[in-house]
Amino acid sequence: MSTTALYNDQQGGAEAAVEAGQESTATSSSSGAAFGLFSTDFKKNEDLKEMLESNKESLKLEAMKRIVQLISKGKNASDLFPAVVKNVASKNIELKKLVYVYLVRYAEEQQDLALLSISTFQRALKDPNQFIRASALRVLSSIRVPIIVPIMMLAIKEAASDLSPYVRKTSAHAIQKLYSLDADQKEQLIEVIEKLLKDKSTLVAGSVVMAFEEVCPDRIDLIHRNYRKLCNLLVDVEEWGQVVIINMLTRYARTQFTSPWKEDGIFDENEKAFYDSDSEEKQGQREAKPYIMDPDHRLLLRNTKPLLQSRNTAVVMAVAQLYWHLAPKHEVSIVTKSLVRLLRSHREVQYVVLQNIATMSIQRKGMFEPYMKSFYVRSTDATHIKTLKLEILTNLANEANISTILREFQTYVKSQDKAFAAATIQAIGRCATNISEVTDTCLNGLVLLLSNRDETVVAESVVVIKKLLQTQPTQHSDIIKHMAKLFDNITVPMARASILWLMGEYCERVPKIAPDVLRKMAKTFTAEEDIVKLQTVNLAAKLYLTNSKQTKLLTQYILNLGKYDQNYDIRDRTRFIRQLIVPSEKSGALNKYARRILLASKPAPVLESAFKDRDRFQLGTLSHSLNIKTTGYQELSDWPAVAPDPSVRNVEVIEPVQEWAPSLGKAKKPKSDDKFYSDDEEKDEEGSGSGSEDSSSSSSSGSSEESGSESEEESSRDLEKTSSDSEKSSSGSEASSSESESQQKEKKRAKKVTPRKSKQTAADSGSDENGNGPLGKTSSSSAESSSSEESDSSEDSDSDSPAPQKKTVGKTKPKVEVKSKKEVSLLDLDDFSPAPPSAPKSSVFSSSLLSDLEGLSLSNVSSAMQVTTSSFGPVKTYELLHHMTGKGLSAKYHFPRQPCLYQPSMVAVQVILTNSSDHSLEEIHIGDRSPASLNVHCFNTVERLEPGASVSVSMGIDFSDSTQAANFQLCTKEDQFSVSIQPAVGELVMPSTMKEPDFCSEQRKLMGMNETSATIAMATANTSKQNISKQVLSVANVGVVSSDQNNLQRFAGRTVSSGALVLVTLELRESSTALLTINTEKTVMASMLLRDLKQALYQA
Amino acid sequence: MINSLFLISHSGDIFLEKHWKSVISRSVCDYFLEAKEKAGDPENVAPVLQTPHHYLISIYRGKLFFLSVTQTEVPPLFVIEFLHRVADTFQDYFGDCSEVLIKENTVTVYELLEEMLDNGFPLATESNVLKEMIRPPTILRSVVNTLTGGSNVGGTLPTGQLSNVPWRRAGVKYTNNEAYFDVIEEIDAILDKSGTTVFAEIQGVIEACVKLTGMPDLTLSFMNPRLLDDVSFHPCVRFKRWESEHVLSFIPPDGNFRLMSYHVSSQNLVAIPVYVKQNISFLETGSCGRLDITIGPKQTMGKTVESLMVTIPMPKSVLSVNLTATQGTYTFDLTTKVVLWDVGKLNPQKLPNLRGSISIQTGAPKPEENPSINIDMKLQQLAISGLKVSRLDMYGEKYKPFKGVKYVTKAGKFQVRT
């Protein structure tokens, strides 16, 4: 007390010092003098004070170390405050840190003196070293002095926009501290939180969410726009932050998404029915509308799943509870394995995890049943672990495994840990009531236990038997008799009382024995425990009512004994019973009802789990562990009936693609990436090889054209049906899909009549098989991919044909014409790389293979490398979605190089969707796209894709003559995957037919700025005219302009979107060089095209 | 989150306290001490306790209680995991986590705790980061420090705090670049009286000691990764690579760390390396009993069973034992009533045997249950699951590291019921 008084005197001085912003040596020395008045207690630390006053750093440090030791022991060192606080600006970092420790510990008690240090921190907040700025803010915010709240507020605001994420993290921590100091600052702090929530640094995310949880957990609206970012950052956030974010997102998701449990109410009906039919099921039946999971909901589930593999048990538990509370019921079981794994961890971890498993296992036995043996008890387990394991085993018991469990329980009953043995008996009792098949077995087993030597075991058995008999009172009079026989040997009061109660309750079933037991009790009444006496009185009363002839005297004797008992409870009871059963004048009306009162049938006790009601708390919380509502516990809200507007989570900023695959972004090098992909590609190629073998002879002609023809079919259908598209995608029924199929066929029939496509009809029958029958076609994936390559090869053979100009006229025509040749090349394809027979082909193949690999290795980095052809070389297939990222859905695309039918300004893209998962995927369609202005013609929703099946769909994308990637989402019923298509510049061109003179005149118009040229070196193999055109056409989708000049080659094309001419001239020079000239208005395209051509010609 | 931390010795002495928010009086520990009294064995104290105003979450490590006090809702595992991390850090810094060592290094402990938590929320828990801020005490350094007045505290922000590989510090240099991996598997098993397996599974860990210069990027692949049923990784392991290719790709922390732990599915039959023939019986009268145990090799995959140790916790009523061991020595602890038989190497030609009589307190009833037998053993150069590391590749650095893999199989919780 005196301290405060003294300090108050100095307050003026201290404040002045703060205002002056100086280090107040004067003040502190005067305060040191003031300490002179202090009690003897102070003298103890006199030497420390002297050390602190000295000039030697090492002495000061030594003193501070001793002071910290005092603090750590909980001893009061507050009287040294003035001496310590002087050193707050010390140069020695360790000394300074120890002063900080001291300051934070005692500032609250010595507020005025603490103010002396503030200016130092204010200065440090401006330090160029981020570490110093951060620690200054840390200490400043830890000083719990209300006066400096405005200073703290200012510092926090400033730090929140600091360049260093570490400082911003510190400011997030400071928010909580300030809030606990002064809750009035809430509004301002929320602003800072809002700002920090937008932070993209993984360092900040965890801390700011913590601040959010502490300051404004109800401001769910702040999360909306950061939801996706948080989901995506999650994997890279430090582990402690992960726990906090996951818990927050669990709460968030419960307010924003609709319940995923409705759809599979049937799934766990059999599980649920046993306990209580849940309301969810009823809801599920009421709502016939199929449930479609919000993609954001799915995103959360998907991004948290890898965290189950975390080494941090808290993270694993957090994910487990998230799945428990948010995932569709059939997905929850993926957490089981990880939870069971945690049981290998420390005892304390086991305890908490077992508690949670106990709650989970009540509702969902199936989840943990396969791991039942992991819950077997070891004699070395701690008692509370044993009991929890027992609890879980009991919950897991069902008809199938009960015999195993009971055998295990038999071992436990013999345990030296008697408390545990008793718990086991309780558990056996529960199994017996829950599973009627084993009730008798259990009862018999328990009866056997009655002859056990250990009293607690016997007592517990009696109690459990009593409860069991109560549920089935009609049988088992022999057990009651057996118990009566044992009665003399049982000494545990509770057990004796239980037997007496049983005798009384079922005295009519054992009419001979009951009075005899009462006779024995009358003899020993005075020596019994109170609880036994009470039951004796009870038994006497019941027997008096049922069998008064034999027991009247006995009853009276016992009642008399009871009347004079020392215990007032017993005297009381005796008086009451006497009035009730013995008719007299005073007793009156009650007497008539004695029988009904005493011998009323009593409801059987329900033996249920102690964890029955724990599910009201969120799993993994402290509240759940303690089974009470703790301070600050946030209720998990029920699912909303109707989901709030999901668009609130949309963010205008285009998110970089890699953010969608967060783990890949984790310091992952491209090297590992391409290995990953190329491996996969190889596999695919293998698959396609074998596939083509099967289909080579018969359906090859059809399948080679399949891609083209189908895209046209779909497109023609689309032209009519674009408006109904959206409707169709929303309805998930089989009927509509089959309907659309039939429509498709109809269209096709109609199409056959149209003269333009008449040439295709031959191929149509084949494509019907392949293109329209994806359902249930297991091998079609390989067939599909092979078909793309088949078409390539067929086009290869075209290149050998003498009239390449024809291609510009119409694409379909030459294909039909060269059908016979195609077959030859197809056979070649079968052995693909090993030994292609003809030389030119081999060069094409090897080069394409090479470019394939190159394209793969760099496909994400530079699109310029990607090589495709319309009529030459294999069409390069790109990966759109890998089946690992796509949860089984994989997508590949290639550019068929055909005019897009949806809109002339679009580039046609052929997408092959393959389902490599083990369940069918439904409603595959295209979702959001970015940029939003992106003009995409989507393919029709694929209603259903069976496992192993694949389907080829075509879409059109307007790239607006730029190589900017088109980003969009590929959606299935449950999932959304962000994918992007980045076109090679050569794909943005369409071939244009032109005579040589026209070409020259056009070229003349596009001189100067519009001309780009370069001298290029060419591989010697490329100097032949054929090979050059092959290479050029492989890069760009242009048309050959026939020319009679031997050293000149000309190609013409138009950009797809704007129709600008693109003229390519290649003038051969000596020694394998050539002058490459490109004339076009689109100069950017020209330079890119130039680069691609240069590379292609040089390489081959 | 975590409000205060108290370290309490086995005997109930509160010898260190640290507060991150307002000071909470140490009298709050009384509730805990009361619970500890009631539980008897410190292992039996419930880790989560409730008092009128606070919640107590504690762990028991190295005969010490780490008791944290919190006032609001917090995931209990969060606190427990953190407390274990604190204990791990102490172990890392001082070689062991014991009362004496902590008392000796109070200042370092305090500095560590200050850095590990800010306002009760974990700040830096990576040992690499901490070691850059607060250097572990060594004799040499303390001598140098006293002479020069230098300090153990770093003045700059550890690089790990900011980088996306917080577990590794920058600028690591070694003259001998080496990477060692120990595949350690433990067999958890319960065998019943007749020797049949009630329950058995294999839990494995890969402990690594990596001393490599610079920022190496390692890839560790297995011959048979499909064997692994459930895995958990150090944060450095790229999960996606594992998912897609079943290889471990990571930038390793510097020094010792646990790369992964795994579980081998119990569907695979677990090879049990030894069998135990036992006969323990207590006579109905005469207050004595007999014990006869023989251990022999079962499925050892051609390796020798080493450091075989048998622990038998006897019933409390046992007074003394009089046994003879054909191999090794045995001890009987009178207070804990534990028979400990140190067998050593298991010789298949001459099976070790322990037999003799047990005397029980006169008058005490015959023990209900025979004691269970706990077995400890080691098999060198063998991973009992058959897991094999196929190769270790290093990217990102030019030099050629020295690589080594060691396999050990141990008995985990290996119990024979009798």
TrEMBL record, chain A:
It is found in: Cytoplasmic vesicle, Clathrin-coated vesicle membrane; Golgi apparatus. Residues 714-728 have a biased composition (Basic and acidic residues). The keyword Membrane applies. One of its GO terms (biological process) is vesicle-mediated transport. Residues 746-759 have a biased composition (Basic residues). Residues 760-770 have a biased composition (Polar residues). InterPro entries: AP3_beta, AP3B1/2_C, AP3B_C, AP_beta, ARM-like, ARM-type_fold, B-adaptin_app_sub_C, Clathrin/coatomer_adapt-like_N. Its main location: membrane. Pfam families: Adaptin_N, AP3B1_C, AP3B1_C_2. Keywords: Cytoplasmic vesicle, Golgi apparatus, Membrane, Phosphoprotein, Protein transport, Transport. Residues 988-1098 form the Beta-adaptin appendage C-terminal subdomain domain. It is a peripheral membrane protein. Residues 10-31, 691-706, 729-741 have a biased composition (Low complexity). Residues 787-799 have a biased composition (Acidic residues). It comes from the Eukaryota. Residues 819-964 form the AP-3 complex subunit beta C-terminal domain. Residues 1-31, 664-818 are annotated as: Disordered. One of its GO terms (cellular component) is clathrin-coated vesicle membrane. Subunit of non-clathrin- and clathrin-associated adaptor protein complex 3 (AP-3) that plays a role in protein sorting in the late-Golgi/trans-Golgi network (TGN) and/or endosomes. The AP complexes mediate both the recruitment of clathrin to membranes and the recognition of sorting signals within the cytosolic tails of transmembrane cargo molecules. AP-3 appears to be involved in the sorting of a subset of transmembrane proteins targeted to lysosomes and lysosome-related organelles. Belongs to the adaptor complexes large subunit family. PANTHER family: ADAPTOR COMPLEX SUBUNIT BETA FAMILY MEMBER. This is AP-3 complex subunit beta. The lineage of its organism: Eukaryota, Metazoa, Chordata, Craniata, Vertebrata.
From TrEMBL, chain B:
It is found in: Golgi apparatus; Cytoplasmic vesicle membrane. GO terms for biological process: intracellular protein transport; vesicle-mediated transport. GO terms for cellular component: clathrin adaptor complex; cytoplasmic vesicle membrane; Golgi apparatus. It is a peripheral membrane protein. The keyword Transport applies. The keyword Nucleotidyltransferase does not apply. Keywords: Cytoplasmic vesicle, Golgi apparatus, Membrane, Protein transport, Transport. Residues 176-417 form the MHD domain. InterPro entries: Adaptor_comp_med_subunit, AP2_Mu_C_sf, AP_mu_sigma_su, Clathrin_mu, Clathrin_mu_CS, Longin-like_dom_sf, MHD. Belongs to the adaptor complexes medium subunit family. Part of the AP-3 complex, an adaptor-related complex which is not clathrin-associated. The complex is associated with the Golgi region as well as more peripheral structures. It facilitates the budding of vesicles from the Golgi membrane and may be directly involved in trafficking to lysosomes. This is AP-3 complex subunit mu-1. It comes from Xiphophorus maculatus (Southern platyfish).
